[in-house]
Amino acid sequence: MADSPKSFQLGAEIHAYIVAHGTPPDALQLELIEETKKLGGISLMQIAPEQGAFMTLLTRLIGARRAIEVGTFTGYSSLCIARGLPDDGKLLCCHVSDEWTRIGQRFWEKAGVAHKIELKIAPAADTLRALPKAELFDLAFIDADKTGYPVYYEEILERLRPNGLILVDN
């Protein structure tokens, strides 16, 4: 778990409670965290382990079978979501960097969840607009270029089931 909160909105006491009582990252997740750290300062884009544990829990709690992620980076958040999906669940990951997502793909394979994940390397707005306007997703996670959030949100909202859940980072 992170030593300090990655969110400026999370107080130190609440963060300490979450870390003390939450699910710590397993060996594979720790390995992915270390691999991402090797990228240098950009590694701060990775979600915190406690956020990932919460996302796995939320995915399971709402019974998500179909999910979408905008902004995959090195695949930590997608690994967490995929682990929360049933074995026949599907996660569509949208990202623009093949370099970073290759790291994630290796870890998805190691975790045994690669069969649940479809990766689209293209601008997310284009990928989303190309999807049919139907109830495609139960859960969405948006964590990409902040200027694109309004477009991502609106495009996903048109494709979200009633009572579906949209998670937005930052």
Question: What topology, given as strand order, has the largest sheet?
Answer: 3-2-1-4-5
Globally, the shape reads globular
Low-confidence stretches: none
Helix content: 40-55%
Question: What Rg do the Cα atoms give?
Answer: 15 Å
Q: State the end-to-end distance.
A: 18 Å
Number of strands: 5
User: What amount of the residues lies in strands?
Assistant: 15-25%
Structural class: alpha/beta
Major β-sheet annotation: 5 strands, parallel
Mean pLDDT: 93
Task: Please write the string of helix (H) and strand (E) elements.
Answer: HHHEHEHEHEHE
Number of helical elements = 7
Written overview of the protein:
- With 170 residues, the protein is α/β, with parallel strands linked by helices.
- It contains 7 helices and 5 strands, in the order H-H-H-E-H-E-H-E-H-E-H-E.
- The chain has a 5-stranded parallel β-sheet with strand order 3-2-1-4-5, with helices on both faces.
- Helix 3 (49-61) runs parallel beside helix 4 (76-84).
- It is globular.
Describe, in short, the structure shown:
The chain is α/β, with parallel strands linked by helices and about 170 residues long. The protein has seven helices and five strands, in the order αααβαβαβαβαβ.
